Amino acid sequence: MGINDFLKSTFSHFGRSARKKEVISRILKSPIQNNDDVVNLHRYDPTNIGDYYCGVHHYFDNLKGKYLDIFDYKREDQEVRDNWFEKITQNSLIIGGGGLLNREGFDLQMKLFEQLGEKGKKTVLWGLGHNAKSPSTYGKITKYNVDTSKFGLVGVRDYGMKEEWVPCASCLHPIFDKQWTVENEIGIIFHKKTLGNEKVQKQFEAFPSTANNAVFEDVVRFIGQTDTIMTDSYHAMYWSLMLGKKVLVIPNSSKFYDFKYQPVISSFDNWQADIKKVQAYSGVLDDCRQTNLTFAQKAFDYLNV
Asked: Is residue 4 part of a domain?
């Protein structure tokens, strides 16, 4: 990195940091903390179909159009930041889904929502989970980076935690009711970041593949047409298990270790030996849907929506 790029990156970092702190401070100091309506916060990113479709607002008529990108508090556009402030101070909050816990990039926002719960803000955690990057944490997460008792209602996608289990709401998408004919024995769904790994791409070039930045409907169809899925995408794992597929996971975060129906964990180096261990589960889709619908009734009663 040249000196100009370094300086540009440094100034950009400090600018984002200042914007984040200013918005959070303004929210916490605001005398207005209403529960007029509800807004759903998650990572609203159309280039990552897992992040995009994990938003609860996609699946319930009373939440349609009521969403915020959890990253909007750091945007350069003042109007975007002001909208974030306005929506949060005026409304009850549904936070999730996605890997928003135990992750540095979401720490400030989650701590903010925790504090707002203490100030009378109605808050619901729905289908989110831990997402620690360090391999030393894999399979070892026992607590979250926020006090979940400070939130009004809690449902997390991590089955091994003490909180109520509520998997990602994307299970409610009607596309999972479709049926496909299996055409591929093994298929790979890459996380979009892995597309830049030339070694991995070369290693698996002979296999049919897609990625989590592709069109959602195409990815789900790919899963439906494949017997065994290998992936380093959480939602590709989740959707594959719901469709009764055998799944081999290459973990890049703690999030893969705590789903109710466990896939086989492997690596890009050892996949050939481990893929012989994979198994399919039945009833996953129905379980996930019913759990979400039951939780939705509790959430909407609590939020009065």
From this structure: no
